[in-house]
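Schema walk-through. Below, the input block comes first and the output block second. Nothing else is stored per chain. Lengths vary across the set, and this one has 195 residues.
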Amino acid sequence: MMISIIVPVYNSEKYIDRCLDSILNQTYKDLEIVLVNDGSNDQSLKILENYALRDTRIKVVNQENKGVAAARNTGLDNATGDYILYVDSDDWIENNMVERMVELSANADIVFCGNDNAVSPESVKKIIGITKEIWNKDKIIYEFLRHKIMSGMLWNKLIKRQLITDNNLEFPKGLRYEDVEFTYKLIPYIKKVNH
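--- output ---
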């Protein structure tokens, strides 16, 4: 089962190495890594291109600056994996995160894990912990509305790509928290969540 990891990048030269190294060091190897340079005017594009030379699983997509929602949509348009994982360029993930989420997937629409959302100078959100629960529709809605265990943020969710593409979902442009809106739009179509 292939996992597409989509990373929107804008002026991320100071921290993109740590993000990409954490992705490339995953114990789960069947990855497609889609890096969307959203019109960066620093050295981000050059860094992405250098990583692509080192690993054939990396695709670099370059576009003019349109914002993070558009970059995520572009990433999805270029992804072919069974599941999608969005990782922000200032994040890094534990090296066994994808493997553990895939083990738990069992044909779920979404698998999500805990995270350390402590804000550091680099604004890092380190992915941690999976508790192995299966949620039905009522529990999904309840937990999303509580916004405690299941937040609208994307960087801790493995999402079945077909769930997004079959329902023609995309990220709304111009919103501050477009990922929360996107997650909200997913809810009517979700049948099973593993946590």
